[in-house]
Design brief:
The structure holds 2 protein chains of 2 kinds. Chain A is of the alpha/beta class. Chain A has 11 helices and 9 strands. Chain A folds into 2 domains: 141 residues, Aspartate/ornithine carbamoyltransferase (Rossmann fold); 151 residues, Rossmann fold (3-Layer(aba) Sandwich). A 5-stranded parallel beta sheet of chain A has the order 7-6-5-8-9, sandwiched between helices. In chain A, helix 2 links the parallel strand 1 and strand 2. By secondary structure, chain B is α/β, with parallel strands linked by helices. Chain B contains 4 helices and 8 strands, in the order E-H-E-H-E-E-H-E-E-E-H-E. In chain B, the strands form 2 sheets. Chain B has a 5-stranded parallel beta sheet with strand order 3-2-4-5-6. The mean pLDDT of chain B is 93. Classes of the chains: A alpha/beta, B alpha/beta. The interface between A and B is medium-sized, with 28 and 23 residues. Chain A: One of its GO terms (molecular function) is amino acid binding.
Chain lengths: 309, 179
């Protein structure tokens, strides 16, 4: 079938394998569209989408907006900084006010985990979660797996290690769900203080040593140190973190095979990854960004196709 | 359900030769022309014509592409099921070219309307022509007519015209199917 099993994209947790495969197949077509001189299709010309960002974002917002415009949707943007949220309005009221202006779909980023799920139960529009606190960031995980599939041919059977701040990372959680659904094996690596308790219950193994993790894996996904989410010190200094969990050319060259390096961005150059690695041929960081638009077009297109007239 | 044979393999073969000759007559060496098969079912006809032109009529280097029109259709969100896309494979620009769109059945004309929009993503062609194997002439919703047609068929809306190809369906044949 060519339809998703869900009406909203709230998290990878709610998808099945067929959904992800359908999103990838659709993204393949949109990737071809994006290579044309005119990168726009008229499918969504009668759909209006609101991008509601209660938290800062540059590339995700840009990527969603480009995806929406290339599908010919009408787009309205809203960021909390200049809004009546500051004046005390509730989330449901804010969104219902926007929806009463005939908006069909809401792309939302919110600092609270579960905000998208909450909203989907109270408003009529289709909701796409663009990151809810430390919970999920489904489109990032989809584009990550899609980029692995593009680079290595398949995600199934591959070994992926996620390195860094697993505790605060919605990218890590969504990636774990997506990679496992597609049949990859996942390890996590990082300081003990940034490892969630019971992370093994997700079916991943913890590898405290970066070198061992890199020797094992096909792909290393390096997460950003999220200083803005750290309410206390989780490691003594950035320098110490870099020495233990940062990746550099020397380390990569000492491995027995060539691995693929990913990073969800924005990069702290010289902290979790050095410039020579980030800009090397092994890195697919810019492919991830490029694929982000095609993946988001696919998600929006497939969800919009379920909005009946 | 009744199934009536409209065209046999032999008749299809004769028609394909005629269509290839008609294309030759107006495009000569195809130096300024491109053939575009419409996904999914127009691709079989397009491939057959391409092969004929190359092998039987010795035309070299005909630019050839496949175009999917799913994202350009005017019935998005209007049907019960979501439309699955096929792949587009056009590796050249159509700017200033003479484009021949190829599809198996011309029915309401809506697919062709979508194709006319879709092809513009690859540049501004000098002209666009349409070739179809079957022309259901009394079923049009839009003012679109083929430049080259295999056979005109008068069928009512409840009837279906099914084109079968050896490479996909095991035989070359055109059937009229009525419920």
């Amino acid at each position: 079938m060519s339809e998703l099993s869900v009406r909203h994209l709230l998290g990878i947790k709610y998808l099945n394998r067929r959904d992800i495969e359908l999103i990838f197949e659709t993204a393949d077509h949109f990737k071809e569209v994006l290579s044309r001189p005119i990168k726009k299709v008229p499918s969504l010309r009668d759909i209006t989408i609101a991008n509601i960002f209660f938290e800062n974002s540059t590339r995700t917002k840009l990527s969603f907006e480009l995806a929406e415009k290339r599908l010919s949707a009408d787009v309205v943007n809203f960021s909390a900084a200049q809004s009546s949220v500051r004046k005390g309005e509730t989330l449901i009221d804010t969104v219902n006010n926007i929806l009463s202006m005939k908006v069909d779909m809401v792309v939302m980023r919110h600092p609270n985990p579960g905000a998208g799920i909450f909203l989907s139960k109270h408003v009529k529009a289709s909701i796409i979660n663009a990151g809810d606190g430390a919970h999920e960031h489904p489109t990032q995980a989809l584009l990550d797996s899609y980029s692995i599939r593009e680079k290595l041919g398949d995600v199934g059977g591959k070994k992926v290690v996620i390195v860094g701040d697993i505790l605060h990372s919605r990218v890590a959680l969504s990636n774990i769900f997506a990679l496992q659904l597609l049949g990859a094996e996942v390890k996590v690596c990082g300081p003990k203080t940034l490892m969630p308790k019971h992370v093994e219950s997700l079916g991943v193994t913890v590898e405290p040593n970066l070198r061992n993790a890199l020797e094992w894996c096909d792909v290393a996904n390096m997460l950003r140190i999220q200083n803005e989410r750290m309410d206390m010190s989780y490691f003594p200094s950035t320098r110490e973190y870099t020495r233990q969990f940062g990746i550099n050319r020397k380390l990569l060259e000492s491995l027995s095979k060539e691995i693929v390096i990913m990073h969800p961005g924005p990069i702290n150059r010289g902290v979790e990854i050095t410039s020579d690695v980030a800009d090397s041929g092994q890195s697919i960081i810019l492919n991830q960004v490029e694929n982000g638009v095609a993946i988001r077009m696919a998600v929006i297109y497939l969800l919009a196709s379920q909005i009946k007239q | 359900m009744t199934k009536k044979l409209l065209l046999s393999a032999k008749e299809i073969d004769i028609i394909l030769h005629r269509l290839a000759c008609q294309l030759l007559e107006s495009h000569l060496d195809f130096s300024d022309s491109v053939l575009i098969g419409l996904q999914p079912r127009g691709t079989f006809l397009a491939n057959r014509l391409l092969e004929l032109l190359r092998k039987e009529y010795k035309v070299k280097d005909i630019p050839f592409g496949l175009l999917d029109i799913t994202f350009y259709r005017d019935d998005f969100r209007r049907g019960d099921k979501t439309l699955a896309a096929s792949s587009t494979d056009i590796t050249f620009l159509v700017e200033g070219k003479r484009v021949v769109l190829i599809d198996d059945v011309l029915y309401t004309g809506r697919s062709i309307r979508a194709a006319l929009t879709a092809i513009q993503s690859f540049g501004r062609p000098r002209e666009i022509e349409l070739l179809t194997l079957i022309d259901r002439r009394f079923s049009r919703h839009l003012p679109i007519q083929p430049n080259y047609r295999g056979r005109q068929v008068d069928a009512i809306n409840e009837e279906k015209v099914k084109v079968s190809w050896v490479e996909n369906d095991g035989e070359d044949a055109v059937y009229l199917i009525s419920q």
